[in-house]
Every structure is written in structure tokens, then in C-alpha cells.
Amino acid sequence: MNKVRKLVKGDLEIIRKWRNSPQVNRYLFNRHEILSKEHLLWFDSVHNNPLRHLLVYEDNSHIKAFLQYEQLSEQTKTFEWGFYIAPEYHGEGLGFEFAKLMLSYAFDELKAEKVFGQVISLNLPSIKLHKKVGFKLEGRLRHHCFFDGNYQDLLFYGLLKTEWNKVRDSAVNNS
Ligand SMILES: CC(C)(COP(=O)(O)OP(=O)(O)OC[C@H]1O[C@@H](n2cnc3c(N)ncnc32)[C@H](O)[C@@H]1OP(=O)(O)O)[C@@H](O)C(=O)NCCC(=O)NCCS
């Protein structure tokens, strides 16, 4: 059985390991190796911030992914998400179940009006995942970043509550 729970200090080392792995690191803006001390400072600085929600995805009590929601301001219920799955589970279709559960959390628990995501154009698994759960492409900054020896576009994806409700209803009807 899968579930979402809050990130606790005891999870920090495993998620740091995932974040520093080449399979995750290659898709992130900040690509330097994160050391334990920096990681702890980051956790201490954000985990009590009411606009930040640090979450993990568990499957049968086994932690498999990390996700952060950042509410863009107190005045808006738009949340930007950023996430990674443990490298050993990439490419197995886990992303879809993970994203559906995390979106339910955003729209049901956090009462989000919109979820927003930024994706580098070389990240095909993430692009496919955003489309699969109903995100719409809202913008493209061309040649905005330089990755793997090439300029890449930065893509902006958005999912509104009304759109999510339709995706969820169709998923329920097809199950
Ligand atoms: C992005 C991520 C969450 C996707 O989760 P996942 O479980 O690996 O993805 P899935 O197995 O569900 O695959 C998603 C889609 O990408 C496709 N895909 C997987 N690897 C691919 C590759 N190397 N090239 C092209 N498509 C690929 C899958 O076939 C699937 O498409 P489908 O639904 O049409 O079959 C995960 O790979 C990850 O954590 N990546 C590193 C961190 C990251 O990129 N975070 C997001 C930043 S925006």
C-alpha cells in the first residue's frame, strides 16, 4: 500500500544519496554535490516554513521518492512541485502512481488551485509524466539552460484544480 507522509530528519541521508546520483542530478538546476552539512542546513531552514511542504512517497513502508511543494505566496494557492524517485525505481512506471498520489495531496489536503512544474527539455520521462497526469504546457524559455553540452529549453507546465478533477474522474471510471 502506498502513502504520502512528511519528510523527517531520519530520511535525509537516503534522499541526499538519491539527489547526488547521476540519474537524478543530471536533471536538476543545481548540480553540485550536496554534502551532509549543507543538506541539514537546507532542511533546518525550510521544514518549518508554512509555504513549504516536504513529502515522501512510501510503498509498503518503504520510502521510494521525495517531493517538495512550494506555495508561491500566502495570497495564491499555486504550488510549484519538484521531485525525484529513487534511481533504482526509474523507468518502471512508478512515476504515474507517485504523481497521482502527490496531486491528490496538493488538491485535497493543501487545497491547491494550481500545481506548477518546471522541466528541462531533455527530461523526456518528466515531460511524459506531466502530460500523462493532465498538465498543460504554459510556456517555453528557449535555450535557457546549458546541459550535457547543449542549450536546452525550460518548459513551464501547469495543472488547474478543474483539470485535475477531470483526470481523476476518468482514472476512477477506467479502473
Ligand atoms: C521523472 C521521474 C519522476 C519519472 O518517473 P519514472 O517512474 O522513472 O517514470 P515512468 O517509468 O513512469 O516513465 C514516464 C514516461 O517516460 C518514459 N520514459 C522513461 N524513460 C525514458 C527515457 N529514457 N526516454 C524517453 N522516455 C522515457 C516512459 O516510457 C513513460 O512513458 P509512458 O507513460 O508513455 O510509457 C523519474 O524518472 C525521476 O525521478 N527522474 C529524476 C529526477 C527528475 O527528473 N525529476 C523531475 C524534475 S522536473
Walk me through the structure.
The structure is a single chain. The protein is an alpha+beta fold and 175 residues long. It is 35% helix and 37% strand. It contains 6 helices and 7 strands; from the N terminus they run βαααβββαβαββα. It has helices at 12-20, 22-25, 36-46, 94-109, 124-132, 161-173; strands at 2-6, 52-59, 62-73, 76-85, 114-120, 136-147, 150-160. Strands 1-2-3-4-5-7-6 form a 7-stranded mixed beta sheet, sandwiched between helices. The longest helix has 16 residues, at 94-109. It is globular. Bound molecules: coenzyme A (COA).
Walk me through the topology.
Elements (H helix, E strand, L loop, with lengths): L1 E5 L5 H9 L1 H4 L10 H11 L5 E8 L2 E12 L2 E10 L8 H16 L4 E7 L3 H9 L3 E12 L2 E11 H13 L2
Parallel strand pairs: 4-5
Antiparallel strand pairs: 1-2, 2-3, 3-4, 5-7, 6-7
This protein binds coenzyme A (COA).
Features of the shown structure:
alpha+beta, 7-stranded mixed sheet, 7 strands, 37% strand, binds coenzyme A
Q: Going across the major beta sheet, what is the strand order?
A: 1-2-3-4-5-7-6
Task: Evaluate the radius of gyration.
Answer: 16 Å
Percent strand equals: 35-45%
Which molecules other than protein and nucleic acid are bound?
A: coenzyme A
Overall mean confidence score, pLDDT: 95
Low-confidence stretches: none
The number of distinct structural domains comes to 1
For this structure, what is the CATH homologous superfamily? Answer: Gcn5-related N-acetyltransferase (GNAT)
Overall strand count: 7
Secondary structure class reads alpha+beta
CATH architecture: 3-Layer(aba) Sandwich
The percentage helix is 25-40%
CA distance, first residue to last residue:
17 Å
CATH class: Alpha Beta
Shape: globular
Number of helix segments? 6
- What's the SSE pattern? EHHHEEEHEHEEH
